[in-house]
Protein 1
Amino acid sequence: MEDYSGKLLIASPHLRDPNFLQSVVYLVRHSQEGALGVVLNRPLGIPFDEQLAEVLSWTPQRPIELGWGGPVEGALLALHDQKDLAEIPCDMGLYFAGSETAIRELAERPMAQVRLFMGYSGWGAEQLEREVQVGGWLLGDGNAEEVFGETESLWRRCVSRVGRDILSTGLGEGWQGAEPGLN
């Protein structure tokens, strides 16, 4: 089994599941038991300080926008760049946390890069592998700029990059068709 941890799952243009239409998911963990990720490009438009200050009885020093991490309900989750607050080490110098203590500390660190999510995306054993195999998802390498950057055009940028990568490697050894662009 290939480990997709740390990869970006980019919804294929053919994927019609409304939960993941034009989504880019950062895969936190992938193993034989299943996969866990968060959707990067579904901001909720709600600053963390407004939404949860009453519930948690504290107000962070800076606003952090909340994102929709996926259809599986759960605790507030964070993808961040602070190694000392890592609960799950990821790839690309990223870390994942879900404890209230870690999230409070992240919200108080002005230089920390952090994305907060309500919910997450999950797949059972071999489910994600099947979805990739039938073309529902494209796999790509990501970087911290994409994880923490602008989300509105993220899907288009990732699809374009993966498409360029596919074309730059040729159409594969043994491809028997005509030359691209010639008919």
Protein 2
Amino acid sequence: MKSEVKISENRLQMTRVFDAPRQLVFDAWKQADKVQQWWGCKETIKVECRMDFRVGGSFTHKMSLTGAGEFSYTGTYDEIIEPERIAYHADMGGTITRVVVEFIAQGNQTKMVLTQEGFPTKNICEMVSRGTTEAFDKLDELLMRQAA
């Protein structure tokens, strides 16, 4: 399934159903070795993750992009309810957004809803939605490999 995307002026909401149990999908967000395999747009060739996965902990995802150099995405975890919800503030190079990721069990599948608010323009929101959609495609592939 592809991602369902809703965009407003400063808010992005993406919904995706993964053919994997909720705990497996949640683990892909909390374990650096897994995040490194799916984070970033399709031009991302390498991701280095440092994560302190706890409320108040921080993370840095340093991405190497084909033809564009390096880009860092940092944040601080505000709320973690395993395996239901992760909330954090993300610094995207001067723009701070609030991200909430919800994991909803649906039998052997997981509905994941990501809501990100605080974009300065609708254009940036649309750009982030494209990269996040591509990242979720990679996450889907990772989950299929793990389930096999």
Protein 3
Amino acid sequence: MFFEEFVEGSEQVTRGRTVTETDVVMFAGLTGAVNPLFLDEEHAKTTSFGKRIAPGLLTLSIITGLTYQLPTGPFGNGFVALLGMTFKTPKPVFIGDTLHATVVVKEKLAPKEGRGRVILVSTGKNQKGETVMEAEGTFLVRVKGGDA
């Protein structure tokens, strides 16, 4: 999407995606996040969660990936860069949870030199409707006919 195509207050809902054992193991191996809370079921049973959880950054990555797949293609031709992101994880994500996100265009900041900034808020929920991720990202996007 180009800057002009984002509408403040507009909302889209992503499709769902189930978090798998493979996701957690591959993410831990790729990033070095080899916390026993993610990988050791017996250890995880002794924690307040009672079983293994998915890393918060994996959840953020999945929610961001689902946003990339929205039919409007928000990160297609107009996308230049992710400028920053903040997130909160109010509830844990477990292996087998199915996640989806509601994505809202929070704000558009005036373009300069053919590019503008768009702030998107993504609220990730599990299959029970519980909020498991709240993320806000600032994206640099092109104005139609503008340079990258």
